[in-house]
Design goal:
8-stranded mixed β-sheet, 16 helices, about 650 residues, homodimer, FAD/NAD(P)-binding domain, alpha/beta
């Protein structure tokens, strides 16, 4: 007898990508099942290094403080090379700051994958709509592509195989090494969507016929996490140590440990060694040769490995009419040295999660065909939105591989411009240059086909991530960072950059915008305010579009309660909401965010940005461009195009 | 049959003071028993408001991040008054910043007592040397004052009474209201010291014959924690609302709540109401009258109370030859409105804890009479050190009462200088003005009887708290705050403000000081370095005096490994210790601490500070004043005066 289970989303693989994806479904009521063939959470090692964007994602999941508390900050990079005058040994060439000015915050921190997974996993455990099963993997999959998105069917049918469950009262750790895809299905899952977060050897990728395009590189690396006992003076800095026998990348981490990436050549020269043949002693010997004449001994070694790098991108990121998705290592592989693997996986998942959540929460999308004559929009809004996952993330992976090629080359053959190449690399890996192409979820101003160079330089642009910035609350002057404020609830935000509202004309314009935002007829009211008769604080927290204000007026000339009610809504149980209006002002202790300056905003006229649930800018319009604002939510399928609102479920 | 238990320290009362005291004994091996007559931890309310010093104490206990994460920051204070031109209603007079420039950090945060207790309690649970028993209180006490400190005896004998223990397998909450001191002893405790942290009605205070000196004030206050529903515009600021019928103090807190302190007059005028007769409705009515014409309704009320303030200080803080101590509310009471009660209690305990720990860890004190001709030092070093608890904390309590009198008066009859009085109050309550008098633990330069006005203005002065400041690690440039670095381990610190060690002469002087600090003969080596043959990292972490360096040289001209080994010791298991040398330098992202400027230190010559385990400065000497340095540790009883070192246990 084969058991049958019905879920909304089946996630294959509970690594960083799968856990990040599952985090999007907290408090959603959507039924999610994660399966992983491993017997339990990853115990150790592997990926490390969290970019600022990834840390912002953790903030949005509510686990930022825990992650930061365990992470190690990187601040300086030392570059060592051989002596110019010849002779043996290495010399310090320069020390550069690990800092990207445009970012305004910590660029990178170090935390091992198992702890990252731990915090994301803990964050799921109290949510009964999300289940995780280890020692479980899929063995068959069938997808009925005739079923339309938004309908009630479950077109994905998956056979699962399980390791026999352990007695839950025993407290020993599992003794198995998990299961594999050769097993016999003992359970059938009916799902609406299936997502493969199942790593470089992805099972789902093979089932849906996606191929990885690209090659293996011609280098083998050893990686080792250990407490170094050394008189090398820069051991607590990020170091690139380039000697005649190769280049070490050394990165400090917590618990007095350091991670080394060390190239390992074949013992006899000639062909590359097989990573399986590489031993810890051989890696350490290679490291010693590079840092000589400095001494190097290993104290405690907590993890080590050896690998050969592939640089490949999947031919597709979604298949079967957007019923099956591939995320992270399942569709791109590259060298780990730029610390991009775990980050890109989590960011892929972060891009996909809110789209699935929105489509599954039927009430928030209009079910009918929506987008008129545009052939790309002939599909339902659901399908168009889901298709943007591949449209947005595949180019990112392709850019990453191109970057990685250059980076590996730099490693192999040190160039004279090592430091400027490094800086370019740091900027790239922070993701500041990512801009998603126009789509239903990234809308350019009417009539604009693509952004010209002048707009591209600006910092509030559709398709780019909303840059994090500091503002202060109008009500109490407490400083806040905007990305921390934007929790991953699935809500869009309309951020009204209201300009100088101490000036009467601008204040009137912002009040008028408030009326439009609250208007449940031809405005956005049905998205920004609770249903008639519901005015609890909880109802206000559940609206699909949250309205926020950032003004640049003299804060003491602004009275919060004089502003339109949509900006400081009243709830019968908790009074006014004081936490939606911010000033671009000096804080008492934390300095001035200078948002209007940094984002190049017009202080007189302001503007209005639609920020997607994942923190990317969806549209930017003038504060009086009501049709532009409404157009965005029509385009994404949340309002009827006719201008006649559809009732929300 | 009466059970018998032997402990080192018996603490009566597991409130903020008792828990803070117990936190000092983590990882010490000293046996501590806390008893409290309550059936369990405080469920709610009461004290609130944490001053910067208290938050530094939590950092030193390792619970700073948890406390900060739950706390609410205060940034602005609004002052409201009646209309000058007469007429009804109130107007906003001014808004001032809740900020003390000298402090350089957040002055105050809000967190309710029960959560403060929770974090301190959690921090004890994994330490098997510390036990806590609720529903337990002392009923008898006898103290043998003939026993000398440092001997092996247990001169304190206490009879305890217990509520019958609940079955540990039942999971209901205790149904009793605790026990009282009228019970019959069913257990005898033999202890070396007893500490009364048992609140304003302290049982121990009565047993040891200490009286509270002072009076009840003539005002009755209601206090209420609630979600306000109001159109009063400054509800998220700290507010002093002064109307004809009284002054409300309103303080924002987390979970959208606000705390109000409201004066309640008798219903018929005339005599003061009995606090027992005051109802929630009456408090709310008084509040409404004050904020009128603004509306005020209460959403959820999480706690309320009414009380009449006493302003009293105990005649003694220790008795019975320093065998019995009184801490916190047990020896001083005052109005809660300056938020000083819980803070002062915790700070009292913080002052006492390390002294008891040092005395109980025999090996760290010389047992014989130590201080030659000084009559104050005729006692053993143990007794002299313990006596400084009263010498240091009683004046603080007296100053606090004096301050409170003025503060309450200000409340009752608003003065024209309300704002400047407020600022003065903020400075006082931060504790910046506290300076402990000279003693064995606070040593002035030889020949100086008291500090002149010029020295008093300086910021690195024996008897004052080491001001918190930011520096960067020499090894990796990561920014650190010094008070966070000074964990409450019981260790003293010698902080070498090394000056500009890029200059050869100064570098030589600091190296020479290093030799003295490492010298196990006539220097401080037996306090700063592990025993011969022990060179594990753990052994280095257990030395009773930790050596740190803060230099102001160009950081890139300093090589850490060129410095004397005592500044970056080697351990056989973990290599060098990279975390003892700091630079007063610009950090990558967090600005410049400007320590030498703020503390008015000589950049050429530097100086050397002894910092006590509680973060107060014990002595300040020149970097070549070896005898001054040694003199401090002789004075406090950790080295023999003769100059011949005593072997440590």
């Amino acid at each position: 007898m084969v058991a049958t289970t019905t879920v909304d989303v089946l996630i294959v693989g509970a690594g960083p990508a799968g856990l990040a994806l599952a985090n999007w479904f907290r408090d959603s009521g959507i039924r999610v099942l994660l399966v992983d063939k491993k017997p339990g959470p990853t115990p150790r090692g592997q990926a490390e290094g969290l970019k600022s964007t990834t840390n912002e994602i953790f903030d949005s999941f509510g686990i930022g403080p825990q992650v930061v508390a365990e992470s190690w900050r990187l601040e300086e990079i030392a570059i060592w090379g051989t002596r110019e005058e010849g002779g043996s040994g290495i010399v310090r060439e320069q020390v550069i700051l690990d800092k990207v000015d445009e970012l305004g915050t910590v660029r990178e921190t170090m935390l091992q994958q198992s702890r990252v997974e731990h915090h994301m996993l803990q964050n799921l455990l109290s949510h009964s709509n999300i289940s995780i099963r280890y020692s479980t993997c899929p063995v068959t999959v069938e997808i009925d592509t005739s079923c339309s998105h938004g309908a009630d069917g479950y077109p994905v049918k998956v056979g699962l195989t399980h390791e026999t469950q352990h007695d839950s009262t025993s407290n020993g750790s599992p003794t198995t090494n998990g299961v594999d895809e050769q097993g016999v299905a003992d359970e059938t899952i009916h799902a609406k969507y299936i997502v493969g977060c199942d790593g470089a050897r992805s099972w789902l990728r093979k089932q849906v016929g996606v191929v990885l395009e690209g090659d293996l590189t011609d280098s083998v690396f050893g990686v080792i996490d250990f407490v170094p006992k050394t008189n090398f003076p820069d051991i607590r800095r990020v170091c690139y140590v380039r000697s005649a026998t190769g280049t070490i990348l050394a990165v400090p981490r917590s618990n007095k440990e350091v991670r080394f990436y060390i190239p390992v050549s074949s013992s006899g020269g000639g062909a590359l060694p097989d990573p399986k043949d590489v031993t810890l002693d051989r890696i350490l010997a290679a490291a010693r040769a590079i840092v000589s004449p400095y001494t190097l001994e290993a104290g405690a070694v907590s993890w080590w490995s050896a690998y050969r790098v592939g640089q490949r991108v999947g031919s597709h990121f979604s298949r079967c009419h957007e019923r099956a998705f591939l995320v992270g290592d399942a569709v791109h592989t590259h060298s780990p040295k730029a610390g991009q693997g775990m980050n890109t996986s989590i960011q892929d998942a972060y891009n996909l999660g809110w789209k699935l959540r929105l489509v599954l929460q039927q009430g928030r999308l209009v079910r009918s065909l929506g987008l008129g004559g545009d052939p790309a929009a002939a599909a339902t809004p659901h399908e168009a939105l889901l298709r943007t996952y591949e449209g947005e993330r595949r180019p990112v992976a392709q850019d990453l591989i191109a970057f990685d090629r250059g980076y590996l080359k730099l490693f192999a053959a040190p160039s004279a411009e090592f430091d400027s190449e490094m800086l370019r690399g740091m900027k790239f890996t922070t993701g500041l240059s990512i801009r998603y192409p126009p789509s239903c979820a990234v809308q350019l101003p009417r009539g604009v086909q693509d952004l010209g160079p002048s707009l591209l330089k600006a910092d509030l642009v559709p398709g780019k991530r909303l840059q994090d910035f500091q503002v202060v609350y109008q009500a109490d002057s407490i400083a806040a960072r905007i990305q921390k404020r934007l929790q991953a609830t699935g809500a869009f935000r309309v951020i009204v950059f209201a300009g100088d509202i101490a000036e009467a004309g601008q204040f009137a314009a912002v009040q008028k915008l408030g009326e439009f935002l609250a208007d449940r007829g031809s405005g956005l009211g049905q998205l920004t305010t609770p249903s008639e008769g519901e005015d609890s604080f909880a109802a206000w927290e559940e609206v699909p579009v949250e309205v926020l204000v950032v003004h640049c007026a003299d804060r003491h000339k602004v009275e919060l309660l004089a502003m339109h009610e949509v900006y400081r809504p009243w709830s019968s149980d908790q009074g006014y909401d004081y936490w939606r209006v911010f000033a671009d002002a000096e804080s008492v202790l934390d300095g001035h965010g200078r948002v209007y300056e940094r984002l190049q905003l017009d202080r007189q006229k302001g503007c209005c940005a639609v920020v997607r649930p994942d923190g990317y800018v969806g549209a930017v319009v003038d504060v009086d461009n009501f049709s532009g604002l409404r157009g965005y939510f029509e385009g994404v399928g949340m309002l009827e195009v006719s201008g006649v609102p559809t009732a929300r479920l």
